[in-house]
Amino acid sequence: MRLVRKQLADPDPVQVEQEMMCEGERMSRALGAAEAAGRISGALDTAYLHHDDTVALQRVARKLAGRTLGTGGHVCDSLIAAADSVEPIVPVRQPERP
Question: d(Cα 36, Cα 51) in Å, to the nearest integer?
């Protein structure tokens, strides 16, 4: 949520998009793809709160047009390490199956 809100106002939304992609990768590594996708989807449902966000989101889309970003190789290693040191991801404990 913080990154989504940051991207709407940041002068370099492309850099924030890369951070968001790396955070998604970090979540997926820590929680598994399904739980990470669920958490991200839930956050995005409430991320864009105001009418002004639509205008900002259009600006972000223009800045991202034609860009290619990814999480492969070592692209996210330093961002993930920094995020893990400040705010580790804690998986939700799933009930054991009978």
Answer: 27
pLDDT at 76 over 70: yes
- When divided into structural domains, the chain yields a total of 1
Considering the entire predicted model, what is its pTM?
Answer: 0.67
Q: Which range of residues forms the domain containing residue 28?
A: 2-86
Is 72 inside any structural domain? Answer: yes
Quote the CA–CA distance of 1 and 6 in Å, as a whole number. Answer: 8
DSSP secondary structure letters along the chain: -HHHHHHHH-S-HHHHHHHHHHHHHHHHHHH-HHHHHHHHHHHHHTT--SHHHHHHHHHHHHHHTT------TTTTHHHHHHHHHHS---PPPPPPP-
Q: Does position 30 have pLDDT exceeding 60, yes or no? A: yes
Any domain includes 94: no
